[in-house]
Design a protein that fits this description.
The structure is a single chain. The chain is of the alpha+beta class. The protein has 3 helices and 8 strands, in the order αβββααβββββ. The strands form 2 sheets. The chain has a 6-stranded mixed β-sheet with strand order 1-2-3-4-5-6. It has a two-stranded antiparallel ribbon with strand order 7-8. The chain starts with a helix and ends in a 6-residue tail after the last strand.
């Protein structure tokens, strides 16, 4: 994941802050730690608070990473359902799930009533731009390493 983090940090430099496995505050008592949170640049560098939904430009989870942390092997559906519902309910506009095994990225957008209304699947050969940073083109190959 370090390579992906380095790639994202270079790509979003001077446009957004890339936080790697650090908390974001969605609601009281809800502070998930997504693999990558691309957030607005904060003059205090989030030293006195975690980013909140209005700060989040894009969240990225790597499906493999959960397996390493807790020893279990949840299906990708866990990312698509439970985490997606949490992020959609909080109003996170865009959530990407990197599926290392299938070499795909699932892009969820347009949260309404706790569910994402749009779901698209891309391959490692694709390039896409986040909704809130349309001038930044992400080469998915570097996320699927």
């Amino acid at each position: 994941m370090d390579d992906g983090g380095d790639y994202l940090k270079a790509l979003f430099a001077n446009r957004a802050k890339v936080r790697v496995q650090l908390p974001i505050t969605l609601a009281p008592g809800s502070e998930p730690e997504p693999d990558f949170a691309i957030v607005r640049i904060d003059e205090n560098r989030y030293s006195n608070r975690h980013p909140q939904p209005q700060d989040v430009l894009l969240l990225i989870e790597v499906a493999d990473s959960t397996w390493k942390h807790n020893g279990s092997k949840p299906a990708l559906g866990g990312h698509r359902t439970h985490k997606a519902q949490i992020y959609a309910k909080a109003g996170i506009g865009e959530y990407w799930i990197v599926n290392i095994k299938k070499r795909q990225v699932v892009v969820l957008q347009d949260p309404q009533d706790g569910l994402y209304q749009s779901e698209q699947t891309f391959t490692e050969n694709d390039q896409i731009a986040p909704l809130l940073l349309p001038d930044v083109v992400v080469n998915l190959r570097y996320l699927i390493l």
